[in-house]
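Hello Y.,

Per our agreement to keep a running log of every chain we model this quarter, I'm adding this entry. I've kept the format consistent with earlier entries: sequence first, then predicted structure.
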Amino acid sequence: MREKSVMSNRQSGTPNGGKIQHVKLVLLGDQGVGKSSIALRFVRGEFNENNEATVGAAFLTQTVNIKEHSMKFDIWDTAGQERYHSLAPMYYRGAQAAVIVYDVTDTNSYERAIAWVKELRQHASAHITIVLAGNKADMAPEARAVQSEDARHFAENNDLQFLEASAKTGMAVSEIFMAVATKITTNIEHGGHIDNRKGIQLKGRTNSDAKKKKCC
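Predicted structure for the entry above:
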């Protein structure tokens, strides 16, 4: 496993001296869709055209401030190669959030993203916040293979956040993680809490209740 630990000074600190909320977030998706590029753009503001393929998983951290909350993301950037698939549950188990990335120019990567959604619904925390993110949105329109409307429709039907982004240009990368932060903050303000073993726990609802909601 590659490990990187980076914390941005420009977004560190606790508003009003409040407690930092630790959020485990896992990045999932096919090899080559740009998971590592999205993570590095968010954490360091960098883009490397020749990123090496992740082996196992890489670890990064970043802290953001939202309302009166400070949220520290513990980001697990998982390998996209099929041979590492069996390791994925080790990283998404207990995660409060997942960002599932596909390449807007690659239909197969989108189908794989849909498969990841189904797997998380079956095996991850019942209250996990999921963002479906279409990367490489800076590509020319004729290169696009996955239409925004199709992905947005799927996301709406499956209670997912949806954004298209570009790790290369930085477009909407921060918004992906802020969407997670906003959703989790809303859950906390409505009486939920972060459980490091079970994810977000909502007041008055059990894991078994949430699991009854069907996916796809």
